Amino acid sequence: MTFKRSNRDKNLPIWVNTIVPYEYKADLNELYNRWRHKGFSESETIFKVIQALLSLLFATVRMIVCDLSDFISRICFFLSPRFPKNLEFLEKSFLYDYHARSIKYVRISQVAGFLAYALFGILDIWCIPSAREQAWIIRYGLVCPIFLLAFVLSFFKFAKRWLHFTSCFLFVIAGVGISVMIALSAPEEIGYTTYYTGLILTEIFGFTLFRLRFIEASIAGFLIFLSYEIVALFVQEVLSSYESTIIFVNNNFFFVTAFIAGMIACNHLEHYARRDYLFRYLAENRNLKEFYLLGKHY
Asked: Domain map of the chain by residue range?
């Protein structure tokens, strides 16, 4: 069966029709005829067609790269909240204001975290009896004292600049502590497969109540997630049986969902904190309002 070529592209070589999109064939056909009428040989005309195709290819690639770059910049803007370029000078003052306004809530969260971490030690008696002593050493000898120390230091001026670093450290140490408890538990104990829910509670505290910035909270949350994966894969060896593999997949579904939800919540909290600060700043400096409107709205 043979196909009849249209009049529109009858002068184009077969290989051009094969690789060139239909909407570009008319332009190439016009160039092809123009070069042929100017007296160029067949080989010279084909060479020029190749040059035109390469130019078209480079232009397409350039357009794709520009669009991709814009898409990546938008993703980065979402993943790392920040002010527009024309208001980047506000970053330092915002961080100072953010820390100052967060300290009261962070202290409350530290007390709540201390109480929760301590009270959950009661469950160790029944859920991980074989590792109860080690778990209590982690809870009452390491994590809870660090919570108390961070709370006390928050009242000292020299330590306030490290408030978010301290909260981030608390976030990580609390989560890793639970992962270690899971590693110390016996396979027949309840906590062996259920204590991962404590990591989800830790993620909730870290992403929302500790008032961490998005990047800080995401890194800390990922370290906790990584600690659980290491324990599950290399200590519990969950992939050694079908049943344990299903439990591992089930736990990860809940854990990863909580992790992503926490990231989204933390991102929005920081975004709205920045917007609130910006509006307050513009209200106090009305001469900057027009300058702000010239840039991208936050």
From this structure: 7-79, 90-287
- Pair of tokens at residue 39: 């007296």
- Contact present, 171 and 216 (Cβ < 8 Å): no
Both tokens of 221, joined, read 């949350």
DSSP 10: T
CA distance 222 to 271: 21
- Euclidean distance between CA atoms 45 and 4, whole angstroms: 23
Q: Which pairs with CB-CB distance under 8 Å and at least 24 residues apart come from 110-113?
A: 110/147, 110/150, 110/151, 110/154, 110/167, 110/170, 111/151, 112/205, 112/209, 113/147, 113/170, 113/174, 113/205, 113/209
Task: Give the distance from CA 143 to its chain's centroid.
Answer: 27
Which token pair is 152?
């006390």
Per-residue pLDDT tens for 250-273?
Answer: 999 999 999 999 999 998 898 888
Q: Which residues, in sequence order, are CB contacts of 52 under 8 Å at separation 6+?
A: 28, 31
Kindly report the length of the chain. 298
How confident is the model at residue 165, as a pLDDT? Answer: 86
Is residue 204 a contact partner of residue 221, using CB atoms and an 8 Å limit? no
Q: How confident is the model at residue 72 (pLDDT cuts 50, 70, 90)?
A: low
Start-end of H helices in 140-288: 144-153, 157-160, 163-184, 191-194, 196-204, 214-230, 242-284
pLDDT digits (tens, 9 = 90+) for 40-67: 776 777 777 777 777 777 777 878 877 7
The predicted model scores a pTM of: 0.71
- The DSSP 8-state label assigned to residue 41 in this structure reads -
Of residues 204, 178, 196, the one with CA closest to residue 112: 204
- Compute the distance between CA of residue 183 and CA of residue 192 in angstroms, rounded to an integer: 8
Location of structure tokens 């910006």: 278
